[in-house]
Amino acid sequence: MSMKFPIERFRKAATPLYYYDMELLQQTLDKIKGSVSRYGFNVHYAMKANANPAILRRISEAGFGADTVSGGEIAAAINAGFKAEDIVFAGVGKTDGEILLGLREGIGCFNVESAQELEIIEQLALEERKVARVALRINPNIDAHTHHYITTGLEENKFGLDISVVPQMIQKCMQSKALSFVGLHFHIGSQITTLEPYRMLCERINAIQNDLEQQGMTSIKSINVGGGLGVDYDDPDKHPIADFDPYFALFHNHLKLRDGQQLHFELGRAVVAQCGSLITRVIYVKEGIGKRFAIVDAGMTDLIRPALYQAHHKIENLTGAGRELRQYDVVGPICESSDVFGHDEMLPEVHRGDLIALRSAGAYGEVMASRYNLRSLPGCIAE
């Protein structure tokens, strides 16, 4: 399946811009729904991946919940039509104002990451005369073998609670008039491309549940295993939709849920990455000493992943069909040496004005754009 781009629309539009293939997004949502329906699992969309209003509306219409990490994301989720009771709120640094927003909107769950956070949520809930539903995020100390910036499940990471403090925190919830303990939350990282870390997570959760039950704690209504399923950045046309079937089947086969226990997922990248591309226009072709540069009007301000994570997105010359292949470094205009999208890229000969697509940019692209160098934010076409 090769993505079809509305090139004539791009020619008339100002660049850089994000293009979202809404048909591919819908196919991805349908695939996820079909996969989880076999098991009765629940999926929350991780909004940090992409908060474009058109994307959010389509995902909310599909009946997914929302995984949020800020008050702004809670507000955007509600504005996009997500049900408050299907919104979960995670993050190590929730402010009082954000907690109050979640309480007043009646969100489904706060994923708690420290003992002091639990105390503040209880205090604010008492003041508001509300009951806060909370899950405790446990750090399982599992290495997901991904980039060190996006691993979250090791003891050295800032996320989650050590298992040793969890029993007393559960007891605190059960004794409080303002807290309702609903379950346990886990998340081990992002862009995970093998299933082995998830199998290890299942074994770890099974052991934790057994241990807690031996301590008399049996009222765990839900298990939330986070997300992190990776996508194919090298060949998005070969794998336009992530392989969801074995992913969900693994949890069905290896995680020992108790009777009536619900399983929740928080998928972001795997939902939206492949439906998005950053479209940019060639400004100049520069002949260097031993290098040829295609200088484009998009920069790290529009797509920061290559500069921040040393990530690579497939690069295509949309308007170079039939030309001889030549080698280029594809670079942006930002006054930073890290503003590079690709080294030694083989592309159909590049001319000034050509349209270039940076593929698989639907996740952690537009949502991370900035105005560094006082540049304008990228535009958007979603169809």
From TrEMBL:
The gene is lysA. It holds the Pfam family Orn_Arg_deC_N. The keyword Lyase applies. This is Diaminopimelate decarboxylase. Residues 41-273 form the Orn/DAP/Arg decarboxylase 2 N-terminal domain. Gene3D superfamilies: Alanine racemase, Lyase, Ornithine Decarboxylase, Chain A, domain 1. It catalyses: meso-2,6-diaminopimelate + H(+) = L-lysine + CO2. Keywords: Amino-acid biosynthesis, Decarboxylase, Lyase, Lysine biosynthesis, Pyridoxal phosphate. GO terms for molecular function: diaminopimelate decarboxylase activity; pyridoxal phosphate binding. The modification N6-(pyridoxal phosphate)lysine is found at residue 48. The active site is at 335 (proton donor). PANTHER family: DIAMINOPIMELATE DECARBOXYLASE, GROUP IV DECARBOXYLASE. Belongs to the Orn/Lys/Arg decarboxylase class-II family. LysA subfamily. Its EC number is 4.1.1.20. Specifically catalyzes the decarboxylation of meso-diaminopimelate (meso-DAP) to L-lysine. Homodimer. Coiled coil: none annotated. Substrate binds at residues 269, 305, 309, 336, 364.
